């Protein structure tokens, strides 16, 4: 009796022959489908099937882990709130800032008047700094020249009497001449005394000073003082000096 393994090996088709036959069959089917128009329909149906499968995959609920709780956790709620707050912050940042209203000319004028009214009292309240009080200081109010006559020594009277007697003796005769001589001597003596006093007279200067204390003081100078009216002075050692 024959061996069955030998019969199976004799009936087996060569692999190359099987591959060539399969390729010919597939090419024939593809050509037939292209000619009859079945190939585009098949491809479109395949695309529709792919889309349907993708939609089904999308709509399928996610796999729930048996270890995770069914309800959303507190962490998920917090993340959702943070996402919502971030979205609101972005929207607020994108919104333009409200512009300040432009004041009308009447409002601007009123504002300027208010500012001026507020600034005026400040200037009124400011007072110049007053100098420190000085009891020995004052201001020259007036300078007056005073002429003082000299005292007669008698020399002028005697000289004048002699000169007057000589002049009077030149007039008249007898008793008249004697009378004229006496009158000339008297007149000459009086005139000589007046001339002597005038020669010996001096000029003094009276300086009136109004002190800061409110008093008025007088100072006498035998020569022209080195001050002018309206000049500030002070008292040092009983005399006036320029301040």
UniProtKB/TrEMBL annotation:
TM regions (residue ranges): 16-39
Organism: Paraburkholderia bryophila
Region Disordered: start-end pairs: 43-114
Highest taxon listed in the record's lineage: Bacteria
Segments forming domain Glycine zipper 2TM: 155-195
One Pfam family cited in the UniProt record for this chain: Rick_17kDa_Anti
Entry keyword set: Lipoprotein, Membrane, Transmembrane, Transmembrane helix
The protein, known as: Outer membrane lipoprotein SlyB
Compositionally biased tracts (Polar residues): 43-61
